[in-house]
Amino acid sequence: MTVWSPAPVAEEPEAILTDWAAFEVTRPGSPEPAVHLAGYIARDGGRTTSAVQEVDAATWRVRTRSGRIYVLRGRPGLNSDALYTFNWWLHIQNAEVLRDVTSELQAQLGEQPASDRSTPKTRRARR
Question: CA 22, CA 71: separation in Å to the nearest integer?
Answer without folding.
Answer: 13
